[in-house]
């Protein structure tokens, strides 16, 4: 058992792991000197301990305390280089566009005999009278960092985050809740599940309903040569999903042409000489070539041969991904294995698949659509409730509200709760043609799309009635589900904070939260008059050109806006620490933006949108960390190095995962009037903040605001089960913000 990995997982749930029995905890023991020293170290990073955990740590050896400290320091980046380009950057350097132009001319056409100045170690000549070099840690012209820092500030926070106790039992329950989650896991949950599966065996009582979760489990089982993996392969799609996940790292089946086109877009650069999009597309095509060992071929052949369905059923399921299957059949030598004894079912599947001796469900639907047979189409959609739910709005627009919902209501109770809640969340946005719609593509990028053109045939009243009908349908279905759940509870406590947290029903993310598990849409109050954004990247990488940018857009009255970015270091209410384009050796580097709320208030600012972008080739750098700090007390900026990072002041931070496919990310929005920061994740494919469409951001905020909150869901549960709400956490059922830190448990409420 690896205590370091278990401690890392526990920290994500605001906890510390200790292998103890809760029933044997002595709350009357005296706190030892090592524990007091440990508490002091934690306070420097912004954490404190619950009383229970404080007493538990008395019985823990000092080595474990050192491990926990090391993990927190690693997660909070205490030992990284947090020096920006400018020293004491809260005082502007006064650099301007003419400074860059003069320096460019001096380096292109001049020399030191013509232009007096300083030759830096990067080779650039900085003419006198341009940049104040004494204010920089590197070259102000090319953005290469020379000087680094080996310290951070500590203990400036006005509010500490409490850590609680996590035992082996808690970790095993976390594993079970992730496996049983009725919604797709986000980036943090996927990573947590993979870590826990390496430490614990698969629980016998796990009921895994999400195909994407199954892939993570199968990968773990296959890596340990566990034959249980075969039991999860129930359809050809399961096998295809696993094979593609092993190849690409994506649990969703993203077709080769999509990955190739996306790679080309990622590596397309607005600066011509750096444009390597075509080369990237060729390289991606090469990476997607299939080549398998005999062991993998045999295992896959056995999985297909053991499918519990007829050959025609299997072939019909394979048909939508026919092109991919043809490639896999060849690469896995399935035709060869089908001739072996005992592989008769595999041979039959391949024979039917290649001869096309089957009819598909989709072809029947297409035929009914051509005949304008609404009754037949609705009858067929009832055969596939999940597909009916996903196409419900478009079907309502095509065939009318009453006919469609009458058919849908007959099968609504067969659907998982997440689909019903998704319908309720999306109905108002879909049927409101005045607002822009935002969808997330399969590659994770958010895009604005037009409304269904058929909706223009209906009046505003008709569209409102459609949305209301969908909301009524899903609410009645949820009431029936909760009423059917048996409970002996009489009272319920719902933390008021839960009314501000929307339920995640498929908000897949490419970020990992190492110090929390906040759901997208969570609102964080700002305590002081300043918010400090930070970006840290390049840890463990050799010195190279790797240009990541931290930016923000300030929305002013009359739909005007200003941007604080690498090309505009100071603007109303914001200051930037300078643009770093080349990272130093192995230590990484940082950029900051300081937001002054009094200045923003004075300017009448409405929102401030936080973004990070990869200006260099490709997607955002893996392990890039981005977030914000705030404190009721003033936060220091070091005059000698420019270091402005204090782990104790970090309110929220995320880390970019290896599976990220985006070039830009909106990671938060500051509501100036309410003094709240809304955590969200909106990926986009742009080198600069210009690609973060303000209308799209506002549309996403509306979408999050219209989502069912955890508090509202629990209210529905209370109503259906006749539970009496009380104002103190002493109820038979208590739901607190701490409980909500585990989104899998939140999702579990939907399914009882």
Describe this structure in words.
The chain is α+β, with helices and mostly antiparallel strands and 752 residues long. It has six domains: 3-75 and 160-199, no CATH class; 97-130, no CATH class; 211-254 and 290-355; 361-484, no CATH class; 492-497 and 709-750, no CATH class; 511-705, sav2460 like domains (Lipoxygenase-1, Sandwich). It is 39% helix and 16% strand. It has 27 helices and 25 strands. Strands 9-21-20-11-18-16-15 form a seven-stranded antiparallel β-sheet. Strands 10-23-22-19-13-14 form a six-stranded antiparallel β-sheet, with helices on one face. A hairpin with a 5-residue loop joins strand 13 and strand 14. Helix 2 packs parallel to helix 4 and helix 10 (256-266) runs antiparallel to helix 11. The protein is globular and about 80 Å long.
